[in-house]
User: What shape does this take?
Amino acid sequence: MEKWKIWGKGLLSAVIGGAVSAVPLVVIEPVTFNLFQGGAKRLATVMATTALVAVAMYMKKSPLPGLKEIATVETESGSLS
Assistant: This one.
């Protein structure tokens, strides 16, 4: 259970970190991401996208805990064992 708790916290931090990384767009491109003139929706879209990318990278680095990894070995004859 402890592995799942640690994994879940890591996943949550990936989501938060990914979303927060889009916030500087308000300063970098204030015309497009103006929070008072429709830019909030654009910013939310970018935040969701960066969060999704961060989750994908986290999942690649730290797959679900408790799953067994099965390796296949190719023999000299070319068949799998």
User: Anything to note?
Assistant: The helical segments are 2-20, 25-28, 39-61. The chain has one domain: 2-61. The chain has a mean pLDDT of 86.
